[in-house]
Design a protein that fits this description.
With 158 residues, the protein is mainly α. The radius of gyration is 20 Å and the shape is elongated.
């Protein structure tokens, strides 16, 4: 394995962590905008979220290509230290731990934003139903999946 390719991959993982940090901030802002009924702010967050989702998709494609180059396809992130050149072991360990922490923070922020949005949608559904009981019979609010949207998934196998 070429050490330069491996170091490039570590740099990529750090950039991925930065993107996750930014998405986490967007999710936190989205939660606040939902709580304060700020639809303009929520709309802006959703636009930023879409752009960041595309960035994450590009990161995922690059990750797959770099892993192929390194011969590490199928290696879980937490096992990356086992394949790191000896002189890069500590940096690899720090990078992997930081990325895993950042992903956990993102996941938590995403779940809070989703739950907050669902609660508000349920409240809207109740108001609409109270005003027009027949309105909900024609298709009303559907429960959302607890899964991340496909465009927001990435491989963080432990």
């Amino acid at each position: 394995m070429d050490r330069n390719d491996f170091r490039e991959y570590l740099g990529f993982l750090k950039a991925l962590g930065d993107t996750l940090e930014e998405i986490t901030r967007v999710e936190q802002e989205k939660t606040e905008f939902v709580r304060t009924d700020d639809l303009d702010g929520l709309n802006e967050c959703m636009k930023r979220e879409q752009a960041l989702s595309l960035t994450m998709r590009a990161h995922d494609q690059k990750r797959e290509a770099v892993l192929r180059t390194l011969g590490l396809e199928g290696v879980p992130l937490r096992s990356l230290m086992d394949y790191a050149p000896a002189q890069d072991y500590e940096e690899t360990k720090r990078t992997v731990e930081q990325l895993c922490r950042q992903y956990a923070l993102f996941r938590g922020a995403f779940e809070v934003a989703r739950d907050t949005l669902e609660c508000n949608l349920h409240q809207i559904e109740k108001i609409i139903q109270a005003e027009d009981p027949d309105a909900m019979a024609s298709g009303g609010y559907q429960e959302t999946s607890a899964e991340l949207p496909p465009r927001m998934r990435t491989d963080f196998r432990a």
